[in-house]
Amino acid sequence: MSAKHKNTARQKGDRGRRRSRSPRSRRAKVSLARVLSKLGYCSRTQARDLIQAGRVQVNGTVQRAPSTRIDMRRDRISVDGQRIEAAAKVYLMLNKPRGLVTTACDDRGRETVYRCLTDPALPWVSPVGRLDKASEGLLLFTNDTRWAARILEPATHLEKTYHVQVDCVAGDRLLQALQAGIVDQGEILKTRDVRLLRHGTRNSWLEVVLDEGKNRHIRRMLQALDVGVLRLVRVAIGPLKLGELAKGECRHLTEAERDAVRRAMQPQRKPE
Fold it and tell me: What pairing do the DSSP bridges indicate for beta strands 229-237 and 136-142?
């Protein structure tokens, strides 16, 4: 092979090696603001404020750009000179009261679900999904971002169960319409299951099961059917049950509960 051909082959090989290395290096690096959140120190919004205020150092150097990419496994992160280490993984369930918004801070000054997380020993945890202000019931929190992502991943088909009080006496026609699904704002909204729990002379309680969770899913379905929602309570997420947990109280998930969730999220094997 001529020297020219050898040089060309070497250059192609070098480019190939650079391409093979770059995806791994990109995957290893995360924005500084996200790292502080993943380490359980604070929310991503709070992290941005700390970074822009010059209070965060990476390998001893102040960084003021929240988007700075760093390697969580190698770079040393400090806040006000104190080294930040990964917090132990925490998994919580809260019985969310009605009237609280599911966010860390609200620009309209409304009370948030973090009012209920009063234990000063807790690291920073984020809600897994949302319940709107008027809804109540089971809400999960964790600092395990991978676990949270799997809970929310549609492919897991992890069922969410709600008890819904409506402003009418529900009959077969309403139940069948909810089971069949509707189209609202270009989206197909369906239920996994729906049944009548009980009814009075003017209203009813329904149990609605979803295996997907679009924004205001149940409320939009009922509104399209001209039915008003009086209360909406999430009572279960997969095998996790709200049970007798008092309103506004939270507790750690047990190891058995976490194992049950893990099993429930295993992909279903296709029949042969």
Answer: parallel
Structure token digits, residue 168: 């009418």
* Domains by residue range for the chain, with CATH: 3-83 (3.10.290.10), 91-154+242-264 (3.30.70.580), 159-237 (3.30.70.1560)
Q: Which residue has the tokens 């205001």?
A: 216
By CB atoms closer than 10 A (0-12, 13-18, 19+), residue 72 is middle
Catalytic residue among 14, 71, 106, 132: 132
Q: What angle do CA 250, 122, 73 make, to 5 degrees?
A: 130
**Which residue type does 16 have?**
G
Q: CA 170, CA 199: separation in Å to the nearest integer?
A: 8
**Total-model pTM:** 0.78
- What would the DSSP string read from start to end of 186-237? TEEE--SEEEEEEE-SS-EEEEEEESS--TTHHHHHHHHTT--EEEEEEEEE
Output the tens digit of pLDDT for each of the chain's 272 residues. 555 555 555 555 555 555 544 444 445 788 999 888 888 788 888 899 999 999 999 999 999 999 999 988 889 999 999 998 888 899 999 999 999 999 888 888 899 999 999 998 898 899 999 999 999 999 999 999 889 999 988 788 799 999 999 999 999 999 999 999 999 988 899 999 999 999 999 999 999 999 887 889 999 999 999 999 999 999 999 999 999 999 999 999 999 999 999 999 866 555 54
DSSP 272: -
CA dist 221 and 46 (Å) reads: 36
Residue 71 designated active-site? no
